[in-house]
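User: I'll paste a sequence; please echo it back and then give the predicted structure.

Assistant: Echoing your sequence first, then the prediction.
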Amino acid sequence: METISTNQFNAGVYFVEITKSNETAVVKLIVE
């Protein structure tokens, strides 16, 4: 897994929260 900055991680978590109803999008984000 690649190392990411705190800002990128926080943005990713925020995106997951917004799209938590769409599990496919969440999984895609986490995998990428």
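The helical segments are 6-18, 23-31. The CA atoms of residues 19 and 25 lie 7 Å apart.
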